[in-house]
């Protein structure tokens, strides 16, 4: 089958294109079209055979009900019965819009559309293209998301084409959708009404209009034999090709955990995917990192979610790790989709973070111009099982200076560099509990302890690794003295790396 693609502008709708698409739907054929939430796969909701074609094109289980889209409120009475009185006020506030309501169905709606249920899910989209198409098709268009079942929902026509080209008759390309997540589903057959799928319209928004609503806390699992009452409840949905895992904890723990996971994967030559935000993007040094949006405006996260999941399909990763989001407002919908995409696979960030006794290693010397920076650079080149922030500081630094020229020359001979180093004074930020402070000489340790009091994370380098080899001070001496210093530091730092790796194993 050849899938026709027709460009359409919601601000200047081409009536000929709409009539062509409407005629296809009236003939029982399938047309994908944009809504404000995601692209829908349209069919005549009152034709049983059209529903069958929809399930076939998507590879969708036939017990997963389809949502019937209408463009005029009066049409609801033709397909639903026993409509509760709260419906009028809900429709006045949220229709047209990203709200689907479930009612008892009328005899007009075939069971093929409702997945065999006596209820029907109904929505009135706000998108002008969707409204025009629904009217052209006869007023009732069933439209699940226009993707292969289980895949991330489409937010552009290109996504639809990737999944369904050759399986459906037409795609109306109206550009990128506005919201990016499917509608909120509210079950009106129970009292109080119950949210079965979170979306852009939240429980708080409903409660301002009609009072109490319940939220379904027990969404059906894949093992359940009960028919789902609404789309997206039972089966794994929205999933990229790679395995997706949610990392859960407070944000700081999540960042630290994902950093360690990505560091270990990089050591093994296995790049992973990371879903980050604008705020956390700078903290990740390994893996393929994608920015899903900003936490200051979670609507950007919702809009980008499915496109980010699809982008990972083009990357060579087996596993994607995602930060979690606050389960309130539209964050509830974001987490619902991510957890479904992950098949509810999750790991507690605290389980990984607790394995890391130290997260920073700071070397302290006199002026932070030679031995401290050399030790830090040597450790950065070691094979460590954990990612550390490695730096150096000085006890007496009047102003930032580059590394000693002879120290830089000797490091270059060892294929390392101090070119970017700038000396810094040791201060309060360098004495935190998660920082291992290693001084080059005993005098520097004594100075720190005298200023900051007794600490169990401050050692001389020799003390920490159990090696009393003196570290020579090459200051004011020939280049050969810096070479001798490097040889000693190299041996000591290799022992330090072994010690740090053994600490990691002990914590496990």
UniProtKB/TrEMBL annotation:
SUPFAM superfamilies xrefs: Phosphotyrosine protein phosphatases I, YrdC/RibB
UniProt subcellular location: Cytoplasm
UniProt xrefs under PROSITE patterns: YRDC
EC number: 2.7.7.87
Biological source species: Candidatus Mediterraneibacter faecipullorum
Keywords attached to this entry: ATP-binding, Cytoplasm, Nucleotide-binding, Nucleotidyltransferase, Transferase, tRNA processing
Entry GO MF terms: ATP binding; double-stranded RNA binding; L-threonylcarbamoyladenylate synthase; tRNA binding
Reaction catalysed by this enzyme: L-threonine + hydrogencarbonate + ATP = L-threonylcarbamoyladenylate + diphosphate + H2O
Pfam families reported in the protein's UniProt record: LMWPc, Sua5_C, Sua5_yciO_yrdC
Protein name, UniProt field: L-threonylcarbamoyladenylate synthase
